[in-house]
Design brief:
183 residues, mainly alpha, 80% helix, transmembrane helix, VanZ family protein, membrane, transmembrane, VanZ-like
């Protein structure tokens, strides 16, 4: 990946976080509804394909499968408790966004360092500091609150990304050592 592309990805993610953190009283469910409406325009072919596959599955239509029962229970619960679903989705969004930011910062700084582990450490520290600063900044936005719990949840996404990167480094080094030099 070229350096300018890596910079653009990192700046884009940070800009997105900054923008979303600046919206007073931001809610996830209305955004997901709009996103779902947008995606549904392109999803017609997948729906048709799923219907064709479903018609060919050997299944008694009078009996719900465990998956259908679980998904039905979830939808009933979500409809009755939108605040809890909103909370869960917001926390998942925190983890996913900071997971992606950690990986993007790793790719960026891996181009500037000789050791990948240095880039991993730098990505972990920088993303964690950014998560804390973002939460602090939110304390100045009307309708938003700063929360150490959100920093901890961000840190879960950061830690997962860091572990994934370290695992990938370990696997690729092990694989390259087994293959030997490419000459």
């Amino acid at each position: 990946m070229k350096k300018w592309k890596a910079w653009m990805i990192v700046i884009g993610i940070i800009g997105g976080i900054f923008y979303l953190s600046s919206i007073p009283g931001l809610r996830v469910l209305p955004i997901l509804k709009e996103f779902n409406t947008f995606i549904m325009r392109f999803d017609v072919y997948f729906i048709r394909m799923a219907e064709i596959i479903a018609q060919r599955l050997p299944m008694d239509s009078n009996e719900l499968t465990p998956f259908q029962t679980a998904s039905n229970d979830f939808y009933v619960y979500a409809k009755a408790n939108p605040v809890i679903i909103e909370f869960i989705l917001r926390k998942i969004a925190h983890m996913v966004v900071f997971f992606c930011l950690t990986i993007a910062i790793f790719f960026l700084f891996n181009q500037y360092t000789k050791k990948s582990t240095t880039a991993v450490l730098f990505a972990f520290i920088l993303t964690t500091v950014f998560a804390a600063l973002d939460e602090f900044r939110q304390s100045f936005v009307d309708g938003r609150v700063s929360s150490l719990i959100d920093v901890f949840i961000d840190a879960i996404g950061i830690t997962f990304a860091t572990l994934l990167i370290l695992f990938a480094i370990f696997i690729t080094k092990k694989w390259s050592n087994e293959k030997g030099p490419l000459h």
